[in-house]
Amino acid sequence: DAEITQSPRHKIIETGRQVTLACHQTWNHNNMFWYRQDLGHGLRLIHYSYGVHDTNKGEVSDGYSVSRSNTEDLPLTLESAASSQTSVYFCASRGAGTDTEAFFGQGTRLTVV
Amino acid sequence: RKEVEQDPGPFNVPEGATVAFNCTYSNSASQSFFWYRQDCRKEPKLLMSVYSSGNEDGRFTAQLNRASQYISLLIRDSKLSDSATYLCVVNQAGTALIFGKGTTLSVSS
Question: Is a pLDDT exceeding 90 seen at residue B60?
């Protein structure tokens, strides 16, 4: 069965360190997204990609970067982690069209200390 | 103004109750609409799409009013297993989904 997986599931890092969160999907979807979820804010879009070598900024992109070198993966990098980036991160993928379902990974709980 | 707004609740209802959630969106160019469900500490999952003509899936009914930019979800005969957070979701241009903050439902016996 097709799926979308995130790793690691939990991570604790020190302020100022760089960290990369992995997202891998086997749906062969062109569209992939990263969201963060915080109490009081819901899910907010960080970055997204509509295909290989395409990346776009979302609502809360500052301090984050993504790259898309193949269809299956969209890694999210925090260049210099800050405590404000402590959050739960969800990756999602979606097929073509505006009415298709988005499938989410199980989330990565990141704590910056 | 947030693009998608929902009453956060919580809604606390007994089993068997009917409960309605409302959502408004700000961008009139929005193209498609959904309700997602999220259980505690889990990933969101699609509950149902929302169509202009209204649509029903078992105990769940979704309505869309484009003129008022308003979306609703009605749950009839609530079950304990319906306890979750319900997310109103809008697709504007492209395929990026914009989420409301969610409405929490707690169904008790």
Answer: yes
